[in-house]
């Protein structure tokens, strides 16, 4: 008999929760950053229009006091980064930016505490 698959939450609700948790966080200013493409037809010709940077994180922004770039990639528990996302992480980290790979609101806040400092010191 086959074992039932373990349920894991989808990324979208986790991402929305993190967005809401950081909306008024005094340490960072972040916004949603989409990447992808769409096929468009114009004057009888079909074209593919790409937007965003391949592999970019779900949220992008700045650490408020320092201006350091921050990128937050959200995965559901057990989720894995694509090769393009790993390359993007290396580029951001190599340029002095802060890249967080997270699976929950709590993990995001804990990593911010560790890398940026506790919220209480930012008020």
Please tally the helical runs, counting DSSP H or I stretches of 4 or more residues.
3
Following the backbone from N to C, one meets helices and strands in this order, namely HEEEEEHEH
Estimated radius of gyration: 17 Å
What fold name goes in the CATH topology slot? Trna Endonuclease, Chain: A, domain 1
Backbone shape:
globular
**Uncertain stretches of 5 or more adjacent residues:** none
The N- and C-terminal alpha carbons lie at a distance of: 56 Å
What percentage of the residues does DSSP assign to strands (E)? 25-35%
Strand order of the largest sheet: 1-4-5-6
Quickly count the domains. Answer: 1
Bin the helical content. Answer: 25-40%
Structural class: alpha+beta
CATH C-level category: Alpha Beta
> So, CATH architecture?
3-Layer(aba) Sandwich
Mean pLDDT: 90
Please tally the β strands and state the result. 6
């Amino acid at each position: 008999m086959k074992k039932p698959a373990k349920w894991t939450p989808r990324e979208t609700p986790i991402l929305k929760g993190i967005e809401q948790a950081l909306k008024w966080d005094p340490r960072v200013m972040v916004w949603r950053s989409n990447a992808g493409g769409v096929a468009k037809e114009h004057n009888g010709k079909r074209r593919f229009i790409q937007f965003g940077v391949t592999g970019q994180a779900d949220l992008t922004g700045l650490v408020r006091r320092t201006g350091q770039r921050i990128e937050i990639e959200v995965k559901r528990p057990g989720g894995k980064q694509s090769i393009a996302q790993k390359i993007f992480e290396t580029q951001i980290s190599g340029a002095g930016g802060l890249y967080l790979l997270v699976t929950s609101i709590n993990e995001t806040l804990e990593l911010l505490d560790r890398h940026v400092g506790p919220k209480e010191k930012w008020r």
